């Protein structure tokens, strides 16, 4: 089914994925690898073509956590084949991003291309940054990477940032840090035939918009 796909693999903070899913995907979501007796492996199924085609990406839960097929999350409270992982909690600390086991948006990502996997280990959250497969974006409502999701931009730093939802590459956001410590967000459009370059963060005629040329 995926014979024509190029096999890709990378490791991000002890988490790996490949384009050949261990699970035959029939729906979007995260599913346990039925052949994995350690309960650490799972497959992320991404909808590619509306209601017709899915691609599976294999992941491994970090460190001592296991994949719970009921909650579709990596956790240290799940029992695999009668073996319970270490669930001792002492002096539970709060993370800057994670508040519970699961998946949350990456606050440093301006185009929704990455997200964070949260696993609580001995009272402290391990935060693992994951990258969505090429062409898909993290939807915080479903906690899945989706091809058709439109990323809602929010300023997290001062500067100019590309509007990832604009296929013409002509619009961008200007983020200004206010005296109250928050950011003011403004949307601008590059003049005439110029486009916004995410590398130089300027409007230019020398940049080729990948979506416009694609």
Automatic annotation (TrEMBL):
Keywords (A to Z) from UniProt: Signal
Pfam annotation, one family: CBM_14
Gene Ontology cellular component terms for the protein in this record: extracellular region
N-terminal signal peptide: 1-21
Any one GO molecular-function label of the UniProt entry: chitin binding
Domain of life: Eukaryota
Domain Chitin-binding type-2: 22-82, 95-153
InterPro entries, A to Z: Chitin-bd_dom (IPR002557), Chitin-bd_dom_sf (IPR036508)
Signal is among the record's keywords: yes
Name this protein carries in UniProt: Flocculation protein FLO11
Gene: LOC106119553
